[in-house]
Design goal:
The protein is mainly alpha-helical. Helix content is 81%, strand content 0%. It is elongated.
Length: 232
Amino acid sequence: MTASVSNNLKPAATADQDLQPEASKVKRIVNKEHHRLVLLEATASVMVEHGISGTTISKIQEASGVSRGMINLHFQSKDNLILAVAEHVEEEYRRCRRRAMEAAGNEPLKTLQAIIQSEVSDTVLNLRLTAVWMALRSESNSRPELLRFVDTRDRAFYCSVFRCLRKYNKLHGVDIDCRKLTLAIMSIAEGLLTDYHLHSDAFDREDALDMCWYAISRMVVAGSENSRVEED
């Protein structure tokens, strides 16, 4: 009886042993990602406080509590870390816009309004993120590889707005100039970012949203009316 039980347990013990290397691998991946995120957040904090020129590996090490060897293992250099922060910030920004668009449904003006709301949300417009953006922009002339992450002519934003307006044209049988209106909306959003960065204490999100949507809705109406007049 004892021998039988013992034999029955052997496969289970062997299975547990087989799982151990896989569990260790998963743990290493989780730890690696954790260290990476800690380093990105610490680098962003140092950038906000000292600017990119004042950001050093020593300061990042102090802010993160991660060893210099671990920093070198993950990113090899300060330049790679700065680039990774730019990618991280851009992805946060785009993720916020994607979520807003998905929640808005298929009606083009509601989707457009959701895009604008995401632009003035505290996920996008906050002291930390805008400071990082401005720091990255200040370096974009000397480091052109950073520009695509903080460009005022962001292609993804342009396409999102342009598609909303083109869909509005098709649904309502009008011919708004989608390119001009998209560029106007992008200019408004850029102005809000700059205004928040310079005057965060006085910045009113609701007022900014109302102003923005007032201007956009009037431009949409004017564009629709102009296209109908031209048809007549």
